[in-house]
Backbone:
């Protein structure tokens, strides 16, 4: 799998500086090369560790596929640039628009009655687009507060908790205090 990704990255001159839209254009071609879940998982790991792409970038190029669905239904179309859902309900990496506030996002989650998995994907996108772990935790905390105010289900609220980001944020704040 490393050879497939290495060759693909070199042939297409891919780099972590590229936008998600540019990288997602390569998803259909990569999905044809990576025929099973193990290959896709290994490819994502190679993109993360070997080429230093972010999780969002790696997922844009090698999307997670749900069992039993055709590959093209989960691939991220290059034309998707706003907060939309793909056909079949898969959450898109563009789920959060730049202009949408946390309050509006919470209202949309409640109005559309999004599943716990989709809320978790949105929370992950909020963290990934934050400048650091502390601002990511702040965004998630604000989202939880807004969901609570809107009387969202407890499952939706708990889906916004990310223990890894919280741990990173706490460590950053601790280091800052010690300086």
Residues:
């Amino acid at each position: 799998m490393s050879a497939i990704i290495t060759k693909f990255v070199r042939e297409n001159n891919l780099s972590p500086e590229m936008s998600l839209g540019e990288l997602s254009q390569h998803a259909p071609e990569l999905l044809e090369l990576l025929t099973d879940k193990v290959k896709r998982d290994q490819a994502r790991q190679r993109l993360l560790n070997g080429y230093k792409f972010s999780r969002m970038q790696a997922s844009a190029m090698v999307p997670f596929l749900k069992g039993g669905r055709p590959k093209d239904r989960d691939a991220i179309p290059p034309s998707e640039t706003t907060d939309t859902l793909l056909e079949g309900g898969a959450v898109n990496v563009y789920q959060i628009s730049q202009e949408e506030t946390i309050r509006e996002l919470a209202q949309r989650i409640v109005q559309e009655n999004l599943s716990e998995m989709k809320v978790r994907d949105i929370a992950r996108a909020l963290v990934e687009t934050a400048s650091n772990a502390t601002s990511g935790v702040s965004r998630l905390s604000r989202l939880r507060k807004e969901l609570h105010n809107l009387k969202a289900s407890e499952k939706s609220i708990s889906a916004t908790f990310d223990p890894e980001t919280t741990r990173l944020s706490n460590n950053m704040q601790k280091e800052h205090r010690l300086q």
Q: What stands out?
A: Confidence is low (pLDDT under 50) at residues 67-94. Residues 1-78 form one domain.
